[in-house]
Amino acid sequence: MKLLSIAIPCYNSEAYMEHCINTLLTGGDEVEIIIVDDGSQKDRTPEIADEYERKYPGICRAVHQENGGHGQAVNTGLKNATGVFFKVVDSDDWVNEEAYQKVLETLRGFVYGQETLDMLITNFVYEKEGAKRKKVMNYHTAFPRDKVFTWKDVKFFMTGQYILMHSVIYRTKLLRECGLKLPEHTFYVDNIYVFEPLPYVRNMYYLDVNFYRYFIGRSDQSVNEKVMTGRIDQQIKVNQIMTDYFVEKKSEIMGNKPLAKYMLSYLDIITTISSILLIRINTPESLEKKRELLNYIRQKDKKVYRKLRYGLLGNCMNLPGKTGRWISVEGYKICQKFFGFN
Question: Which three-class secondary structure state does DSSP give residue 81?
């Protein structure tokens, strides 16, 4: 039995995947590294994956699939995972090795102890290329440290502070029990990954270490603003999927007030990002898509729509004149903090 399974979605990742894998190998035999080659054809990604499997049998596994996108690669990683816990590390990111050992020590305590852990949260660092100062996303205001806690113990999330894919390690069985399946050929599905399992999460633990290093700086990266505006239809699709899920689970979610508050806030920031990007595209078609998205939410659930309209979304959208534009820009800055636009 493995302590932790780590899935690495790889698509033409030759230039950086080895650095990612090498930092994860320091976890030793307790860790399973699932290198998912998502139909790479332009470089040596498939061969590199196979080389690691040959060199580190019992630790590295190479899984090859037809191109299905990041979400399908995560699905494949989860399907093949044998570890008690599961994490996704993107192929251009890496982990801090000292923090990694603390993470494994913490997980080990739950595997061989009496308590069940559903989700471990750690800090992550924005490794923005060219930036002298690295921004750390921590959760000091939101979670108690170094103890098991539940949703009723969650404190205050600052604006722009959310649990992202980089922050979380889930219990593998929980992801399977909640039926998580990310859509194929769709970007930004990491938002679904950290949204849909939440109603199933009971026990959490916050380890205050800067574990995950989130690289930002490539011009073709999915969080590059130009790339995001070019893929706006996929952002809208994810937005709609999250809305559908919240409405479907609404009775269950609303029975847990701290959970409901957080999930509504997350849906709010995703809808705000969609709206801000559509405003920045600033074509008749994009503004019509913005109206259609808000109308979609209104038709799904009027109460959810009203809550969003009085949240960040309502404060940033549709306000006239210079003040309205200024508020929209401030909303965009919050979105930048959330995604780390480059």
Answer: coil
Neighbouring C-alpha atoms within 13 Å toward the C-beta of 163:
24
How far is Cα 240 from Cα 308, in angstroms, rounded to an integer? 14
Q: Which two tokens stand for residue 124?
A: 């992550």
Task: Let me know: does 334 contact 273? Beta carbons within 8 Å.
Answer: no
Question: Splitting the chain (342 residues) into consecutive groups of 10 residues, what average pLDDT does each group show?
Answer: 97 97 98 98 96 98 97 98 98 97 98 95 89 88 96 90 95 97 95 98 98 80 69 95 98 96 93 85 90 95 88 56 56 62 48
Q: What whole-number distance in Å separates Cα of residue 24 and Cα of residue 311?
A: 39
C-beta separation of 216 from 127 below 8 A: yes
Q: Specify the pTM.
A: 0.92
C-alpha to C-alpha distance for 313 and 331, rounded to whole angstroms: 8
Q: What are phi and psi of 209, to 5 degrees?
A: -130, 150
